[in-house]
Specification:
It contains 1 helix and 30 strands. By secondary structure, the chain is mostly beta strands.
Length: 473
C-alpha cells in the first residue's frame, strides 16, 4: 500500500500570467551567480556520480533497472569504489520486476540537511513508488523512504532561500485529475519523508499540464526559480517561469517559448543565471527526428529577459552541419570548464553521424563569454566524439554518444569536467552503455586522462542495461 506524505503546511493557488516587474529584485543589489551543490553521497569532499541503467538486469530479471554510484577521489570517479542499488537492495521498497525500470529519473539533493547528498529515484513502470535513498558516511544505503508519487518528474533547488534543499514535483495538486500543476516540497525533510512545508500550484486544465521541471536562480537574488515545460504526447506548448521567493514561489508566471528541456548557467558572467533550453517548436513528430535548436535566454533581476541567442549546427563556429536526426540539444549541461567565471554549455548531439557511422553521436562544447563579447556563441566551439584523439573507444553506428551530458567539478580543481553517456554503446552485449569523463582545464576540455565507466568495468550487469540513460544532476 502506498504511504502518504504528511505535510506540515499546505497552500494551493491558481496560476495567473503576469508582466514581471522590478519587485522581483532590487536594482542596487549585486546579483548572486547560480550555484549547484556538489553531489557527495558520503560527504568526503569529492564529487560522486549517480548513473542510471534503467533497463539493467537484476537477479535475472531484465528491465528491472539499477543505479550505479561511482564515488569520487582526487583523481576523479573511482571505478573501484562503487555501489549498485536496485529494488533488490535490502531496505529499498518494492519488488524486482521487468517493467519497473528503476532509475527512470535520478535527482540528487541533501534533503534532510545532514551534509550527505540523498537521491530521489523514480521507476518507469505503473504502480512503482518514487523513492528517496539516504546518504551516509558509507554512501547511499538501503535506508529509504517512499514518496506518494509514481513516475513523477522532479527538480531540486532552494526555492525560498533558506539554505535548505527543496524538491519540486509535477503532480495534480487538487482532487480533480484533469487539473495539473506542481508542488514545492520544502526542506529539510525528515527520514520518514515529511517536508518542512508544502506549496501546491494549479497550472491548467486538460492534458497540457506540466511535463518537466528546470530549477535554477535566474534573477540573481540567491533563490532558485522554476521553469515548467508543457506538452501532450508529441505536441509541445509554451514554457513558464515561476519566481522563487522568501515566503513562497510566485503563483504568477511569465510565459516563455516552447521549452522542451534545459539547464541554468551564467554564460556571460554578469551574475544572473541564464536559461539554456532545447526548443523543438510545437512539433507533431518525435524531437529526435529534427536537426535541433538550442536557445539561450539571458537572465536579469526580473527573470528571463528578451535577450536571446539561437544556436544550431548552422551557427558560425559550431562544428558539423544541421541535419535531420542530429537532435542537437537532446541533453544540456552547464558548468565553467576553464575557470574564467563564465559557464560553458555542453550540448549532446546523439544522432550525429561520422562518415558512414550513422547516429554515433557527439558532444559540442559552447564557450561562455561576456556580454561585450557576444555571450555564448559558436566562437571557439569544439566537438568531441569517439573518434576524437584521446577519447577511448571507437565511433560506431547507433552508439547514441551525448544522449546524456553533465558538467561538474569531479576532481575538485575549480573547473567543470564533462561526463557524457552513450547508453547504446555495445560492450560484450548490445546496448550495455558507457559513460566517458573528460577533464576541464584552462584551455577547455582535455582528452588527456579521459576515462570510461561501463557495467563491465564496474562488475555490474551488462546485457541491455543502457547504462548512462541518465546521470544525476
Amino acid at each position: 500500500m502506498r504511504r502518504k506524505l504528511i505535510i506540515a503546511v499546505a497552500v494551493t493557488a491558481l496560476a495567473t500570467p503576469f508582466a514581471i516587474s522590478a519587485t522581483a529584485g532590487t536594482a542596487s543589489a549585486a546579483p548572486v551567480p547560480p550555484r549547484t551543490p556538489v553531489v557527495d553521497f558520503d560527504h568526503d569532499g569529492h564529487a560522486d556520480l549517480a548513473v542510471a541503467a534503467p533497463q539493467g538486469t537484476v537477479d535475472g530479471t531484465e528491465g528491472a533497472g539499477y543505479v550505479s554510484v561511482i564515488h569520487g577521489s582526487a583523481a576523479g570517479p573511482d571505478a573501484g569504489h562503487r555501489q549498485q542499488i536496485s529494488r533488490a537492495t535490502p531496505g529499498v521498497p518494492g519488488d524486482v520486476a521487468g517493467t519497473y525500470a528503476f532509475g527512470a529519473q535520478v535527482v540528487p539533493a541533501d534533503l534532510d540537511g545532514d551534509k550527505y547528498t540523498d537521491l530521489v529515484v523514480t521507476s518507469g513502470g505503473d504502480g512503482a513508488d518514487d523513492t528517496v535513498l539516504w546518504g551516509s558516511a558509507n554512501g547511499l544505503t538501503g535506508q529509504s523512504t517512499v514518496l506518494p508519487y509514481h513516475y513523477a518528474d522532479y527538480a531540486a533547488g532552494d526555492f525560498n532561500g533558506d539554505g535548505k534543499r527543496d524538491l519540486v514535483v509535477n503532480d495534480h495538486p487538487s482532487d480533480d485529475p484533469d487539473i495539473s500543476g506542481f508542488t514545492v516540497l520544502r526542506g529539510p525533510f525528515t527520514r520518514d519523508g515529511k517536508p518542512a512545508g508544502k506549496q501546491s500550484i494549479q497550472v491548467s486544465d486538460g492534458p497540457t499540464g506540466v511535463r518537466s521541471l528546470i530549477a535554477g536562480d535566474l534573477t540573481g537574488d540567491g533563490i532558485d526559480d522554476i521553469v515548467t515545460t508543457h506538452g501532450f504526447e508529441e505536441m509541445q506548448h509554451e514554457g513558464r517561469f515561476w519566481k522563487g521567493g522568501r515566503t513562497a514561489v510566485s503563483t504568477s508566471y511569465k510565459e516563455l517559448s516552447t521549452v522542451y528541456s534545459g539547464t541554468v548557467g551564467d554564460f556571460d558572467g554578469d551574475g544572473y543565471g541564464d536559461l539554456a533550453f532545447r526548443d523543438v517548436g510545437s512539433v507533431s513528430e518525435v524531437p529526435d527526428d529534427a536537426p535541433g535548436t538550442v536557445v539561450i535566454q539571458y537572465g536579469s533581476s526580473t527573470g528571463p529577459s528578451t535577450r536571446k541567442k539561437v544556436i544550431t549546427q548552422s551557427t558560425e563556429g559550431v562544428p558539423g552541419a544541421s541535419e535531420d536526426g542530429d537532435a542537437f540539444g537532446a541533453s544540456l549541461g552547464a558548468g565553467d570548464v576553464n575557470g574564467d567565471g563564465k559557464a560553458d554549455l555542453a550540448v549532446g548531439v546523439p544522432g550525429e553521424s561520422l562518415g558512414t557511422a550513422t547516429g554515433t553521436g557527439a558532444v559540442v562544447l559552447l564557450k561562455g563569454a561576456s556580454q561585450a563579447n557576444g555571450g555564448l556563441t559558436g566562437k571557439g566551439a569544439v566537438a568531441y566524439n569517439q573518434s576524437t584523439a584521446g577519447v577511448p573507444g571507437a565511433a560506431e553506428s547507433g552508439d547514441d554518444f551525448g544522449r546524456t551530458v553533465l558538467l561538474a567539478d569531479l576532481v575538485k580543481d575549480g573547473k567543470a569536467d564533462l561526463a557524457a553517456a552513450a547508453p547504446l554503446e555495445d560492450g560484450t552485449y548490445a546496448d550495455s552503455g558507457a559513460v566517458w569523463t573528460l577533464r576541464g582545464s584552462a584551455g577547455g576540455l582535455t582528452t588527456t586522462g579521459a576515462t570510461t565507466l561501463s557495467p563491465d568495468k564496474l562488475g555490474q550487469p551488462e546485457q541491455g542495461a543502457r547504462f548512462g540513460s541518465l546521470i544525476g544532476r
